[in-house]
Amino acid sequence: MKIIIGVLALALAILGLRYVDLYLDHTTLKDELLHKEQLHSQQLEEQKLDYLRQIENLEQFLVFNHNSNTSPTTKQPGQGLPQKVVDGSTSLQSFAEIRDSSLTRAVDQKYSIIFPGLSLPHEDEEKLRQLLVDRERVLGTSTVGYHSSQKEIEDSIRQQQELLAEIDGRIADLLGPEEAQEYELLKDSSYEQHQMNSFYEQLGGRNSLSNDNQRALLITKLEHKKNFNTQLQEATAYLNNASPEERANAEKKMQDALNQYKENYLREARSILTDEQYNVLSEYEQMQFEEMWSSLETGWRAQAQ
Predict the structure, then answer these.
(1) Which residue, among 218, 231, 228, 115, has the nearest Cα to 174 in the 3D structure?
(2) How far apart are CA 199 and CA 266, in angstroms?
(3) How many CB atoms within 10 Å of residue 303?
(4) Which of 102, 205, 237, 282 lies at a 20 to 30 A Cα distance from 54?
(5) What is the Cα–Cα distance from 158 to 161, expressed in whole angstroms?
């Protein structure tokens, strides 16, 4: 019996020692885990600060580059740059090159029907291209921030519109009367040209239509869009102070005007396209105009609240 008790006591002692050992291991692992969590949190915070610094550098770079491209004063590369940008990484330069290349491609595509017929001296054509790139850059500049007040937003939009008007004036000075009219139609036509590209894809590619027919189709749509936009601007101003009954009547008139825009455009498009092409366009544009009306209606309803 004494032997059994002795064995049990020895076993308990061994288990006790093992428990102490496991407890110490647990404590050590817990401390290591806590240390790693703290280290991980510190690394995340450092990464966050690093990203914020990169964003700040990028914002400064974009602001500087925007100002330098819209200013009449020519600066040498790097002159006047914030020190962070001068000493900055090539990633910012690469970003600028990618962005400028993208803007140049956008200009070439957007104004592709103007450039072939230009008879400008080479120097003036280069000025025109740069002004068009500057305009796209201004259009792509955000005027709203998370912390912007209503007044700041309104001031930013006003400044943006003033800058666009200045660029438009300088472009008009370089173009002849007919070219200037085409420019007025094309300058805000990115969405319509996107729609045209979607239509061409449904036909099997741009080669399905000749260049002349592509040009005629786009100009036709933009001319009718211009007429509709004039009515839209008048209606939007009227709706600001309209009673519910007046608003309902005005919205009905605008829906009729939008339908007229669609019908006039499609009627002229029929003379440009084959029957098969016209059927594809008619079905496609029906959906596009329905979406346009839905968007306008939603905006007006939100404005009325």
Answers:
(1) 115
(2) 13
(3) 11
(4) 102
(5) 5
282, 280, 255, 254: which is closest to 268 by C-alpha?
282
Tokens coding 173: 């000075």
Instruction: Give helix 211-239 / helix 275-304 axis angle, nearest 10°.
Output: 20
Instruction: Provide the residue-wise pLDDT of the chain in tens; the chain has 305 residues.
Output: 656 665 555 555 565 555 545 555 555 556 666 656 666 666 665 555 555 555 444 444 444 444 444 444 333 333 434 444 444 456 666 766 777 788 888 899 899 888 888 888 999 999 999 999 999 998 887 766 667 788 888 888 889 999 999 999 999 999 989 899 999 999 999 999 999 999 999 998 877 889 899 999 999 999 999 999 998 888 877 777 778 888 888 888 899 999 999 999 999 999 999 999 999 999 999 999 999 999 888 877 776 66
